[in-house]
Here is the input.
Amino acid sequence: MGHTHYNSAFKTVAVLMQMVFLIVVIIMFSLLINSYETSMFLSGGRGTGNFSESGYYSWIEAGMMLGMLSAMCFVLCIIYLTLATGRNDEDEKIRLYRLDYVPVEIQLIAFLVYVSVLFAFCVRVGQKEWDIASSLILAGTLVFISDAVLLTIYLSLVRKIKADIFVSSSLLDWSVRTIKKGLMIQSVARRTVIEFIVTIATALIFAYIAFTAGYWWAFWGLGIIILAAGITLLRQANQRTQIIKVITEISNGNLGYKLNESEYNGECRIMAEKINSIGMGLSNAVEENLKSERLKTELITNVSHDIKTPLTSIINYVHLIKMEHIQNEKIEKYVDILEKKSLRLKQLTEDLMEVSKISSGNIELDMQVINMVELIYQTGGEFNEIFEDKGLTIITRLPKEPVMIFADGSRLWRVVQNLYNNAAKYALKDTRVYVELKVEEGWAEFSMKDISEQALDVDSDDLSQRFVRGDESRGTEGSGLGLSIARSLTNLMGGTFRINLDGDLFTVSIIFPCINS
Amino acid sequence: MNRILVCDDDKEIVEAIEIYLQQEGYEVLKAYDGKEALKILGEEEVDLLVMDVMMPYLDGIRATLQIRKSSSIPIIMLSAKSEDSDKILGLNIGADDYLTKPFNPLELVARVKSQLRRYTKLGNASGNSSVVYQTGGLLLNDDLKEVTVDGEPVKLTPIEYNILLLLMKNQGKVYSISEIYKSIWNAEAIGADNTVAVHIRHIREKIEINPKEPRYIKVVWGVGYKVDKV
Here is the structure.
């Protein structure tokens, strides 16, 4: 049908016409059903059966025809209204009335209420005697009202379907949505409890029905619930296992691991999403950090190179002044200071470069199986005269048999060298320095104890930070980087570095796992 | 009199080196970049070249590559780059020695002397005795019980000599402290002393220009000591 046929005038006419046709149909058929009484009525209401047979049949024929025709017209009107309702000539939109937003369940209930009232009314009315005219009027009125109610509800349903709000406006859908929303807001724990209770309750109801009444569908229901619960548990366990696997990988430093979020549901999906974002954040942070450390190293390397060139001239010319043998005590003293400080500056630039390289992980380790006892003897041989000059006595306690560890020999020498240097610089004169190597339960612990010359009022953790020295005055030699380098190198090689301060007793230890040879 | 070409883009450094070398009686030629050095080498007779790595126009690495195409003159490289990889690069492309800035001027002079001695004298030093062990400029003659470094005799104590002999005989092999102890003292190492390590250090102090960066006796930390074949 074209657009022009949907205007309200047409619709009103159609409504009225279907009403008229319906009433005609009803009247015709009720007349036909009660044809005997009707014929009596039509023939003047007189007594029993002497009216003409042919008149009777011709009336039935005409009544049948009229009824059928009206019924067809009625159906056509209804079809037209079904198509036309909600539509409009102006646009394609479906027009809805306020009634259409009433949930279908309520409409249904209202209709049922109406039907029962009608029924009750009809029962009442049926107890009395009515003459034909009155019953016709009564029937007509009832049909008129019923038709109006039915048509209203029917057309409303049609419009709901047309506008696609039949489901969404229903009470059932609303309650399902409300429950879902409620569940989403609930905490995981409470939700689990609710799910558990609902499942158990349903299962119990099914079980009760199945075992007391013995209905087969209850058995099926029970089976399905048990199966569904089993599958759900299994699936969740599976997903959790996956998630734990990825978390373990990430915590082991494999930040590239990712979960495929679409494989998960419920809280597992939320977990998967969060884990992915944590992993992303971590790997970004690590990358940033590495980048900035690398930049720092580059900067420090460049600056060191730039410092070294003028420093070369300073050292060389200071030395040339010294070679002039100027007979002036003051100048000799000054030149000595210049020489010492320029050498310290040299040491400082070298240490600084080393520290920045280590902390940015820019060094390559040559890890090998080495003998810690051998290394300590070697180091001791390098240092014995330096210690003797300061009046320090080294007491070395090493195991007779080799202690094999996995480390980079020259880096470990650097670590031990720094510890010995540290003792040589900061230990109190004429005291003993204890060097010890112990093996306990597969761990080799090298420790060095000395009495500090200066009172140490720093935290033991701070001592191995860059540039921190026990005296804080920075008057003596040393860059303050020695322990920091030692700690970083030890950690890089997989060892543990520890500093302990007990009054003036300074203990430093490095611990490596032993290798059984 | 030996002529030495000093090449560095920092004029003060060149001048300082000139003073030190002149005090030792060398004649010094000066250049301030690689191109200039190549030009002087082409025109003059030069016995040794001291050259910086980072220079404008032509850096020390490329200049060395060029020089090595036609000459075997000793080259000592100077550089502010102290990475092992930089040293290895320098030595691999043909430099004979590598010194990092800032350097001790006396060490530079010692290295210059060492290189010149080897270049001029060492060529005919070996071969006349059957029990001579040699690595680089280090020579040990077991017949005469004599050790020379770049032709200069070195005085060692008997124990030091025996340790060096052990290492020189088996160049490249790493000896642990207890192995050295056993073969020198003919006794089991009792442990808990630094004797061997101290002796090694003393030997290094006598035969090395810079004992902290030994050329001949190498320490393999946590394993032992060795003398490398050169």
Remarks:
- The radius of gyration of chain B is 20 Å.
- The helical segments of chain B are 11-23, 34-43, 60-68, 84-92, 105-120, 158-169, 177-185, 195-207.
- The first strand of chain B starts at residue 3 and ends at 7.
- The mean pLDDT of chain B is 83.
